[in-house]
Amino acid sequence: MSAPAPSTLAIVDAEPLPRQEEVLTEAALAFVAELHRRFTPRRDELLARRAERRAEIARTSTLDFLPETASIREDDSWKVAPAPAALQDRRVEITGPTDRKMTINALNSGAKVWLADFEDASAPTWENVVLGQLNLIDAYTRKIDFTDERTGKSYALRPDEELATVVMRPRGWHLSERHLVDERGVPVPGALVDFGLYFFHNAQRLLDLGKGPYFYLPKTESHLEARLWNEIFVFAQDYVGIPQGTVRATVLIETITAAYEMEEILYELRDHAAGLNAGRWDYLFSIVKNFRDGGAKFVLPDRNAVTMTAPFMRAYTELLVRTCHKRGAHAIGGMAAFIPSRKDPEVNKVAFEKVRADKDREAGDGFDGSWVAHPDLVPIAMESFDKVLGDKPNQKDRLREDVDVKAADLIAIDALDAKPTYAGLVNAVQVGIRYIEAWLRGLGAVAIFNLMEDAATAEISRSQIWQWINAGVVLDNGEKVTADLARKVAAAELDAIRAEIGDEAFTAGHWQEAHDLLLKVSLDEDYADFLTLPAYEQLKG
């Protein structure tokens, strides 16, 4: 590696953190500065292109596979690069933020992969951004331990061969890092901060451990965005002097536009691609966001009524498996978000059966692995995939040539019988307020009503409220969804929370802010693309 030029980045409005100098070194910041200089202009162009695409969807209320890339889809000769040994078997992956306790528990969980999350499961406080990087460095150098002050319980890493392989997820392209700015005062994209710091410090270290710098790429909306990531990987590998093709990326197909470009996304990343993932919650959010003004045929029912057996969701997941296996990539299934209860075995029994059925279906459909949000779910998901895979690391040989998904199948929302209900509206408000409040306290992964919620589920909640109001939806109890009804439900929920936790805890929290922000992003005529954008302006730290 050649000597880096001095960084032109400045850290602003950030309290010093313990050991931050180990992460924010001059050399690491010089690398991030160079990523910013080279690639942020293209990022900005692609964000503008998103707005143009959305305007076109609003005008036509439809989507199709791209005619200009038909030759890529029709060319059967190309494949992605073979998976490295550490990513051959991905049958169970656990997700979670990179705080110190989670880092140890996820690595020790028995899952094959840990999605170390700087995105939807992490609120981007400066502390979470910087110390999350430090925790991963400490894990790779085996300098990490943790003692819970409340319980006195201590946590330490198991032997290296028992640890999950880390696949790190940086923030999406739309988020900027306000605490790191260039000489013009322009913030660096959060994606480049997260990727840059992690890659710079750990790429060679991971190779020495027999693994590599592996990434999940979130919120991708087109193959052109995948192309940008590929250009970043090529530059980064040359910059630190590791072989081309060392990086491996798994792209979350969690936007409706990306679902029409799966093959093109793999093609753009083919030397660095590891697979695609069915990010179900963000996918539903994306459908609502893009077709929010498309009328009754695009109205989604209650979130929990949209199961993976819904025809349009089935089309999406089966197309993903077929696409991945045709091109030699892993197909990774969706999230089991249930959080086991220590107090209610009956709740657990019912939920475990649902998780088992979900994972059995994914394994039977040809997925090579799936996600869970809690260590107690690892054995259940493992059993489902073990039954199908046996000793094989994956089932990429199952080509699913029986699958034939047409463009219209992916947006056939009205094929679902379920309708919005009053209980669904209440749940959307409850989850929205409770999640946003925790996010404003710096927590990105939050257990609410025995489910692990992250930013994606809050996005669905507020988007559905917006959609139901603007589509004039009438609920099962005969009430029409209006702004006034949403305000009434939100006020009742705020009162219920105060009664539940007491005045002191209520006052100490961010409950009124969360209530106000949920209503703002649910009721404003001008729909905010991401709730985390206005929320970030209120996030302290």
UniProtKB/TrEMBL annotation:
Query: Which top-level group of life is the source organism from?
Result: Bacteria
The residues covered by the Malate synthase C-terminal domain are: 420-539
Please state the Enzyme Commission number of this protein. 2.3.3.9
Q: Which SUPFAM superfamilies match?
A: Malate synthase G (SSF51645)
Q: What is one cellular component GO term in this UniProt entry?
A: cytoplasm
Positions of the catalytic residues: 169 (proton acceptor), 454 (proton donor)
Q: Which UniProt keywords apply?
A: Glyoxylate bypass, Transferase, Tricarboxylic acid cycle
Carries keyword Transferase? yes
Question: What NCBIfam families does the record tag this protein with?
Answer: malate_syn_A
Q: Which PANTHER family match?
A: MALATE SYNTHASE, MALATE SYNTHASE 1-RELATED
Ranked from the top, the taxonomy reads:
Bacteria, Bacillati, Actinomycetota, Actinomycetes, Kitasatosporales
* Family matches, as Pfam families: MS_C, MS_N, MS_TIM-barrel
Ranges for domain Malate synthase N-terminal: 18-70
Which family does the similarity line name? Belongs to the malate synthase family.
Q: Which reaction does it catalyse?
A: glyoxylate + acetyl-CoA + H2O = (S)-malate + CoA + H(+)
Ranges for domain Malate synthase TIM barrel = 165-413
Q: Which GO terms describe its biological process?
A: glyoxylate cycle; tricarboxylic acid cycle
Q: Which organism is it from?
A: Streptomyces leeuwenhoekii
Its annotated pathway? Carbohydrate metabolism; glyoxylate cycle; (S)-malate from isocitrate: step 2/2
Q: Which InterPro entries match?
A: Malate_synth_C_sf (IPR044856), Malate_synth_sf (IPR011076), Malate_synthA (IPR006252), Malate_synthase_CS (IPR019830), Malate_synthase_TIM (IPR001465), MS_C (IPR048355), MS_N (IPR048356), MS_N_TIM-barrel_dom (IPR046363)
Molecular function terms, GO-annotated: malate synthase activity
This chain belongs to the protein called: Malate synthase
